[in-house]
């Protein structure tokens, strides 16, 4: 598979090495000539000292036959430009972008970037595993960006204790999906009665998170999501 990697920082460097080791055909574009030479000294002539934001340099790298263009620079604007150029000028089937600021994720999705990698969101997700039970835990954003998977733990004082799903008032676009009780996942049935210690996995629009918090947790809403 032919892959163009744009950005020769640590992410681009190690990505290139791993792809080469896996037997893929790679070209790495790095606009800093000094950095490009450093990488080329190790991996060879597959490194071009070029700015991947410019169409002529993507063309030189063979973007018209690339299966994937991965933009992994430390600059979100550059990564977006690269992916837009690859997708719309060279018809690259798949674009991948590193997104450093989670607030930019929605824009990247809206503009058609196929895959978004957010190191900040990944680290936050790991940190969120340790948050208090009175907060909502962000688990994932579904493809398209409009829906999220959230976890709510029912603790003491939760208004959901002793109630059934029909008693939980939630807006359209929010669905209680899975119940985790005693470390076992089970479907949420009409006869389910919520208990202290239950974890409820919900799929919801981001704007409905406050309603979910009110119904299942009851404390002051604190939604730990990146951005």
Q: Architecture of the largest domain, CATH level 2?
A: 3-Layer(aba) Sandwich
Alpha-beta content class: alpha/beta
Largest sheet: 6 strands, parallel
Helix content: 25-40%
Brief overview:
The chain has seven helices and twelve strands.
Descriptive notes:
By secondary structure, the chain is of the alpha/beta class. The protein has two domains: 2-117, Rossmann fold (3-Layer(aba) Sandwich), CATH 3.40.50.720; 123-224, Alpha-Beta Plaits (2-Layer Sandwich), CATH 3.30.70. The protein contains seven helices and twelve strands. The strands form two sheets. A six-stranded parallel β-sheet has the order 3-2-1-4-5-6, sandwiched between helices. Strands 10-9-11-8-7-12 form a six-stranded mixed β-sheet, with helices on both faces. The chain is elongated, with a radius of gyration of 22 Å. The relative contact order is 0.11.
